Amino acid sequence: MVTELFPVTLKGAETSRRGKRLVGPVDLSLDGQGLCVVLGPNGSGKTTLLRLMHGTARLTGGTVQWACDMDTARHHQAFVFQRPVVLRRTVEENLTYPLRLRGVDRKAAKAAAQDWAERVGLGQHLTRRAMVLSGGEQQKLAIARALITNPALVFLDEPTASLDGRAMREIEAILLQAKADGTRLILSTHDMGQARRIADEVVFILGGQVHETGPAKMFFDTPKTPEARAFLKGDIVE
Amino acid sequence: MRHAFWLVVTFDAELAEIALRSLRVTLTALVIACLIALPLAALLAVRRFRWRRATIALLNALMGLPPVVVGLIVYIFLSRSGPFGALGLLFTPTAMIVAQVIIIVPLIASIAHQSLRELWAEYHDLLISMNVTQMQKMRTLIWDARRALLTAALAGFGRGIGEVGAIMIVGGNIDNATRVLTTAIALETGKGEFALALALGFVLIALALGVNLAIHWIGQTERDSRW
Amino acid sequence: MKQTLLLALLTLFASGMAHAADQMRMAVTTSFHNSGLADVLLPQIANDLDLEVQLLVVGTGQALKLGEAGDVDAILVHSRAAEEAFVEGGYGTHRREIMYNDFVFVGPANDPAIIGGAGAAEDVLQRIAEAEAVFVSRGDDSGTHKKELSLWAEAGLDADTFDGWYNAVGAGMGAALNTASGLNAYVLSDRASWLNFGNKGDLVLLFAGDPVLFNQYAYLPVNPARHDHVKSDLAAKLERWLTSAPAQALIVGYTIEGETLFVFNAE
Questions:
Q1: What are the sequence ranges of the domains in chain C?
Q2: Of C170, C116, C163, which Cα lies nearest the Cα of C142?
Q3: Measured between CA atoms, how close is B68 to chain C, in angstroms?
Q4: Is the CB of B128 less than 8 angstroms away from the CB of A101?
């Protein structure tokens, strides 16, 4: 990557809506080693934290600082949503869309689309309409569409939360491959098993507050906070 | 009734000319109206601005605009003693196009806005994340909702081609110049020539259906190649 | 296939642009247009003068308004008082009488008000009012409507005071005849509209011939001093033609079902 995004630093970052604080204040610094998992139960503010970093949630206090300016950072990021958002177009047109927006010529875009469709196992479906794909296929398509511009960082907000085991395994394989190819990933999940399988680094969030940050192995072996210990034990935490 | 059918079957030159004029006026109005209404609808969908709600309410209200009143207002504006009198447009096909555009823009924009708003709800997060410009948002929405927009355009066409009040007033129903199917029907009914009026009615219905079918057929062929 | 469709559309838009060398607009009354005489005169005018006369078929009231606004180049109407006011107001250069036809009373064949035996137009109206027989009025400020109102006045009656049986439809001659046919009502029509009317139903011509029913048509060019875009040279050309011998021959020779409709009286 030519542009270096990391480290990203959040200082007292918070977002509230109608006087109610959804997330924060968060003090956090990530230097984006490999795959970072934002872990926490439902409603803990994972999505909002990701959006805050991406710049699509309104910051009502504090700062989010990338190593470069926000616009440049946004340009080198992509976002994958829990419920896959696919354009009402064919698989191929979904994949070429972000490339065409960036001025890539039609032929090169089509070639890249072909390549990425094959990488995520949708090579046979290029001319099908994305809307008729299964949920797992749509999410794979969304991930391929995120990766096709060769971003420095991809945010994934609970990408497998509503999918079956097979789709989850395939998607995790795709993500690990992307990591191996040098893309940084920040993924949110409430699924402890998934975190254990793929995380290099963990950010544990609860009630809009970041309670613990550190290498995955350390987090799982020796959690420092009582909330994290309770969560890892399988207790209900809130 | 039989006489009416016979008139349609023989399809004499004058009837053809009137039918073609109807088609030309309404299709021109439709193209212009779409060029105004679709970007407007897309803008209303993607952009929050101060008068947005008021504009939407206004469009919905204007949908029910009585064509006769539109005709009257256009007439007053285009009359030689009106503000645009110098253009000499009254009683020309151009005047009829102007009136029809005013009548169908709110209709097309309103229907188009409904579907574009839904699509925008679907696309919002993705396009915001991709940091696309307003123009790109609008283009994406319009392109991806094109089938729904075609329906909106068809509704506009239907309203335009069947409209009589406004174009009677601003066109004047001049033989060989501004007489179209609807005004000819009104004229022939006035003369008690029901057979001819009915024949014109058949042609009008056939035209409306024909354009509908043609457009659906275009949509169909496109779908076949995609699915 | 799509290309074919597109091509068809393009040809459609390119077509229909060919017209005669000169064009002018003339507002005429519905009664004149319904007579069918225009269909005889216009082709001959196009032929003799290379002039396309575009007709706006409206009531006398609107025809005069169109002239006042300068939206037409000339008008051909039949309502003397209004025409004279039009010229006096400076909207028209002058008034030139061309021809006349006549009004007739039409009504149901069984003639409940027995107007068939009336001696004069006044008598006809008095009988209708007396019997309160259903009557349809144009009610659209047209020449025919004005004529009808003046006839009621001459008969010593006021149309405003009528109720129930008197129906002002506010529409052209054809629509009024359609309504009369539907209601089986009496109606005052110009002879030409009546003869050309295709939906007579039970209606028949019951009374005609009183000189008060004569219907004088006059030609009024719009004053170019008020509206400089008015094609007064073409209007003058048309006036010369309308008052010429060939026009006279066509007007006098025009018949419907063997009946002569117009009497040429231009000077």
A1: 21-100+215-264, 102-213
A2: C170
A3: 15
A4: no
Nearest to A74 by CA among A157, A15, A5, A26: A5
> Which superfamily is assigned to C102-213 in CATH?
Periplasmic binding protein-like II (3.40.190.10)
On whether the CB atoms of residues B90 and C69 are closer than 8 A, the answer is no
B224 touches chain A (CB under 8 A): no
Number of domains in chain B: 1
pTM: predicted TM-score of the whole model, two decimal places: 0.84
User: Are the beta carbons of A87 and B123 separated by less than 8 Å?
Assistant: yes
Summarised one tens digit per residue, pLDDT across range C80-91 is: 889 999 999 999
Say which range, A17-26, A47-56, C205-214, has the weakest mean pLDDT. Answer: A17-26
* B144: chain A residues, CB-CB within 8 Å: 87-89
B141 in contact with A, Cβ within 8 Å: no
CA of C96 vs chain B CAs: smallest distance (Å): 24
Amino acid at A156: L
Spatial distance between the Cα atoms of A31 and A101, rounded to a whole number of angstroms: 29
Tell me the residue range of the domain where B190 lies. 2-226
Q: Cβ contact (<8 Å) for C198 and B79?
A: no
The pLDDT-based confidence of C198 (bands split at 50, 70, 90) is confident
**CA angle, residues A52, A54, A60, in degrees to nearest 5:** 25
User: Quick check: A101 and B136 CB within 8 A?
Assistant: yes
Nearest chain A residue to B124, by CA: A85
- Contact residues for B98 (Cβ-Cβ < 8 A; gap 6+): B74, B78, B89, B170
- Which ipTM did the prediction report? 0.89
CATH code, domain with B34: 1.10.3720.10
Cβ-Cβ pairs closer than 8 A, B with C, add up to: 83
User: Does the structural domain C21-100+215-264 have CATH classification 3.40.190.10?
Assistant: yes
Nearest CA in chain B to A74: B131
Question: Digits of tens for pLDDT over chain B (227 positions)?
Answer: 666 666 666 667 778 888 999 999 999 999 999 999 999 999 999 988 888 999 999 999 998 889 999 999 999 999 888 889 888 888 999 999 999 999 999 999 999 999 999 999 999 999 999 989 999 999 999 999 988 899 899 999 999 999 999 999 999 888 888 999 999 998 888 777 888 888 889 899 999 999 888 887 877 666 544 43
Residue among A90, A98, A132 minimizing CB distance to B130: A98
| Structure tokens belonging to residue B137 | 């948002």
Q: Mind listing the domains of chain A with CATH numbers?
A: 8-85+153-161+184-233 (3.40.50.300)
The count of C-alpha atoms lying within 13 angstroms of the C-alpha of C216, restricted to the half-sphere facing its C-beta, is: 16
pLDDT at position A31 is: 83
